[in-house]
Design brief:
Helix content: 40-55%
Shape: elongated
Strand content: 5-15%
Distance between the termini: 46 Å
Amino acid sequence: MRQRLFSVRIQRWPLKLAYIVVVYFGVGDGVGFGLRWLRTPELVVQIITGLLHLALLLYAARIFRGRYEEVEPPRLWWQMTARAKLSRRLGILASFGVLFAIVAFVVSFFVPPRDSVSDGIALVDDAIRAYLYLGSAVRLGRRERLLEPEVWAASYGSTIVDVPGSTLRVQVIETKATAAESGSQDAFLRLARDRRGVDVMLGGQRI
């Protein structure tokens, strides 16, 4: 059962959105409504729903896949998204939540109607999210810099292009006449984003 759950992969954004709406909010908040209907103490409800939302978030991080990310291999335990940029943005968003939660927690001691325990739980929840996403951003950024593809200059129009420092040879075949037919422009070899091939770039575009 556990193996089946973690073998699921969601790559298309409509399905990701459906998971967030139906599973994350639907199931998570639905459990909270059910517990309140059973007259469960509010503190217990908030702890349970907070842990459930966190578990559903971590599960999403395990099964979601980015556009250029390999689908089958499992993600590293710390990886929350496919790219460092997205992890950074979500981490910053969660950090703003932490700031608001801190303000609410402090205000709760001076405004009687507010519940300091609820605000404290919200603060811990947002802090965990910020830590997870920002940690993922730092590690992914470090890995992306190490794996940054090297760009080699090549003369466009050559049949065979030798790549320095590697045994890789790429055949460039022109199928139709272009403005670069005279060979006055340079083409560039760049490792493809999926790291399974090589793109030939000319004039800032892939050919």
